[in-house]
Fold this sequence. Notes:
Rossmann fold; alpha/beta; about 300 residues
Amino acid sequence: MGEFLQQFLSCLGGITCLIFLAKCVRLLKYFSPLVWSTVPESFFRSMGEWAVITGSGDGIGKAYSFELARRGLNIVLISRTLTKMQKVASEIEQSTGRKVKIIQADFTRRNVYNDIEESLQGLEIGILVNNVGMIPSPFPARFLNGPENDEDLINCNIFSVTKMTRMILKQMVSRQKGLILNLSSAAGTFVCPLYAVYSASKAFVYSFSKALQAEYKGKGIIIQALTPCGVSTPMSNWAKTSLFIKSAEDFARQSLEYVTFGDETCGSLAHEFLVRFMKCIPAWILHSDRLQETVLVKFTENAKKNRKST
């Protein structure tokens, strides 16, 4: 019995070391774009002629639109605010010379998809970026104290990803190539109190994307869940950029270097380190009442200071 236990523990230790080594190797891959481009210059254009980006009037969606246009694709902008898209389209056309098509749609509504599909007819779509999303409130709150906009959030964060993917994946399968980037969030990779509905909606995007990649990777299609931490966008009230808070432009540019790295990525080296650190913190600490109360108090104090300064 003692010999068996010793062999079992040795085997378990070896497996643990191998898993740790595999994680270290995976993390080391994220350093490579700092030295050389990990994706051939022709890669994105080889997927197809057009890229479709939802929520492309500003923030991350706008950044992806510019970045993919620079890499040789024509762009379809889909968003709610027409004036913003018109400005983005003009800037892209003037700076890159690529074609831009505009589709106005409010993704909090479920009746927009027939019009979108009709507008996309005849386009060879090689890339889809499911970026559109919303957060109930930029401030943390317990579920019953937050705004009651659950239906809008589910339509925008979950239904839009499902419908747009179903719409465009069909032609990708027929051509045996394509790239779908689904914007989840680090908050969708673990339970996140005080942002319960938002976190759960991003967990759907995370799981949905990974499942689809398992289903369709054999057909030459890349489907990747992006799980960033902080990005300076209207959703984050244009948070000040830092080591761990990326500008939308930096995030889009860096994340495109990681599209061949597997079914999920944080999109930046700094975020990979931060997420791994967060996952090392025991759940009982993150879920404790004391921590939640501290977070709520801090955000309330900051909100009061901001109101006074304005």
